[in-house]
Amino acid sequence: MNLGAYIPDADQLSAMMAGFAVFSAVVAVSWPYIFRNTLAERMAKVETERERIRQRERSRLNAEKRNVSLRVEPKRLFQAIVDRFNLAKQAEDGEIIHKLQMAGYRGQAPVTSFLAVRLIAPLVIFVACLVYILLVVRPEAPLLGVTAIAAALGSLGYFAPAIFVRNRITKRQKAIRRSWPEALDLLLITVEAGMGIESAFRKVGEEIGAQSPEIAEEMLLTTAELSYLQDRRQAYENLGRRTGVEGVRAVVTSLIQAEKYGTPLGQALRVMAQENRDMRMSEAEKKAAGLPPKLTVPMILFFLPVLFAVIITPAAIQIAGVQ
User: Which residues belong to any copy of the Type II secretion system protein GspF domain (predicted)?
Assistant: First the structure.
């Protein structure tokens, strides 16, 4: 078989290549008309749908928040009492505001409520004790003695709001101290991942909200202060002042130094996280060491009498049977 007969010559090869080139050119020119590019139409539809959803959500939020304000107004009764007796002077030194902030109460409404309740509580307790003693406990008791007792009990109402706030501060600091090492670990991870300190605070606040709402609140509030305060150091100091926890203050000091001298923040956060974890462990060990003395009195009152009864009762029964 002669294979040379099937090999095209130069003219045939040129004609084939020219025909292929013409076909490719025709396909390239007619391609947009045959297969239309719908990307622009789809993007326009997406943009239209996005705008429609945005308008719908904006209308819904406006309808929901029409009567909602971020500023909580104090109750009219409390505000009237504070204005009538000029109690606002008691909060001018900032100590009451600081205590309320440490307890988690912010704004003017908690301050007004605290001052008004501290004035109202003694009177309410006095009247309640007076009525209770005269009508229930001792109706025949002398009025002067009952009044003196009710006045003594009513005077305790002046200290009741402060005691309540102090208990709230203790519980809040305990919750912060318990979850602070985990927050530092998350902060270390976000910082070493390349985030800025503001983004790191925001991310940690969002992630740790389920475990510790107190830390999440402080983190997000610090993020807001970092965004609008001219002095970033003031935002860090406010974080330590609001919490009042020693571990938080140590981290705040490290953040201020890193902000001032440009030192690496990752190593400092790693050391602080380990120190806070060790502090939490030492507190747990201290509580465990103090448990035996606390159990002594319940054991004497409840366990030993039962144990003596179990041991002595059979012998007493035998002795009574012999006699």
Answer: 184-312
Nearest in space to 242 (alpha carbons), one of 106, 114, 115, 110: 106
Q: Residue 92 carries which DSSP code?
A: T
State the first-to-last Cα distance of the chain, in angstroms, to the nearest integer: 138
Is the CB of residue 192 less than 8 Å from the CB of residue 175? no
How confident is residue 68, by pLDDT bands cut at 50, 70 and 90? very low
The conformation of residue 72, written as its DSSP 8-state character, comes to P
| Predicted confidence band of residue 86 (pLDDT cuts 50, 70, 90) | confident
Query: CA 104 to CA 212: how far, in whole Å?
Result: 13
Q: How far apart are CA 47 and CA 152, in angstroms?
A: 71
256 close to 236: Cβ distance less than 8 angstroms: yes
Contact assessment for residue 316 and residue 220, using Cβ atoms and an 8 Å cutoff: no
- The stretches of 103-155 forming alpha helices (DSSP H) are 108-132, 143-155
Between 65 and 195, name the one with better pLDDT. Answer: 195
Which pLDDT tens digit goes with each residue over 134-145?
887 777 778 888
Residue linked to tokens 């571990």: 247
